[in-house]
C-alpha cells in the first residue's frame, strides 16, 4: 500500500525559503521509472505542477518557478524534499506530493507523469 | 510547453444525467492524458489514464475518450457523490500541466 505524507511549516514570512518534506512508504524511489512530484493549489484555484524527481535523480521543474525550486531525494529515508526560495503571499497554497508511476512502452517501464497516489496536502500560508 | 484548456468551467446537472467535459491540448499528445477528481478539502484522485483507461476501483459510469488534441470525459449517470472538480492533465511531455478544472454540482 502506497502512502505519502507532506510535512513542513504552516506559516512562512515573505522572502523566506520554504522547505517541505514528503515521506512515503509502499514503494522505493530506486525502482526504475518511479518518481515523486510536488503539486500545489492556491485556495479556490486550480492544480499547479511544480517539480518531479525520478529514480535516477533526473529532476524537472515548472518553467515559471524553476529559478526558485530545488527538489532532492533521500532514497534510504524514503523522503523527497522541495525547497522554494523567496516566498511571496501569492505562494499561499496547499502543497501536495504524489507518486508518479512508470508507463509500459514495448514491455519496458519508462518514467511518466501519472500521479496515482497523493498525500493529503499541507496548507502553507505566506504572511508577515 | 503544452497548455491545457477545459470546458465548461462549471456545470449543474440532475442526478442520473449524463455529464460531459471536454479537454483540449495545445498540441498533439496522442493518448497521454489523465483525468482526476477532486472533492472539496481532499487530494485529487486519478480516475482515468491514457485517455480512456479506467483506474482500478473506479466506477464504470466514468469514461474517457479522445486522442491527439481533443478529449472527452463522461459521467454516464451523475450520482450525488460525484460532486467534485475534475481536472485533465497531459503527460506526453514535461511539464505535465493540468487543465483549469471543471466544477460539477447537482441542480
Structure explained in plain terms:
- The complex is a heterodimer of chains A (128) and B (107).
- Chain A is mostly beta strands and 128 residues long.
- Chain A has strands at 3-7, 11-12, 18-25, 35-41, 48-54, 59-61, 69-74, 79-84, 93-105, 108-118, 122-126.
- Helices cover 0% and strands 57% of the residues of chain A.
- The model of chain A has no long low-confidence stretch (mean pLDDT 97).
- Chain B has a 6-stranded mixed β-sheet, with no helix packed on it. In chain B, strands 1-3-8-7 form a 4-stranded antiparallel β-sheet, with no helix packed on it.
- Chain B is an all-beta fold and 107 residues long.
- Chain B contains no helices and 10 strands.
- Chain B starts with a strand and ends with a strand.
- The mean pLDDT of chain B is 97.
Poorly predicted regions of chain B: none
Which spans of chain A have pLDDT < 50 for at least 5 consecutive residues? Answer: none
Q: Cα-atom Rg of chain B, whole angstroms? A: 13 Å
Biggest sheet descriptor of chain A: 7 strands, mixed
Number of helices of chain B: 0
Share of residues in helices of chain B: under 10%
Structural category of chain A: mainly beta
Largest sheet of chain B: 6 strands, mixed
Counting DSSP E segments of at least 2 residues, the number of strands of chain A comes to: 11
> What is the β-strand count of chain B?
10
As a percent range, the share of strand residues of chain A is over 45%
Mean pLDDT across every amino acid position of chain A: 97
Helical residue percent of chain A? under 10%
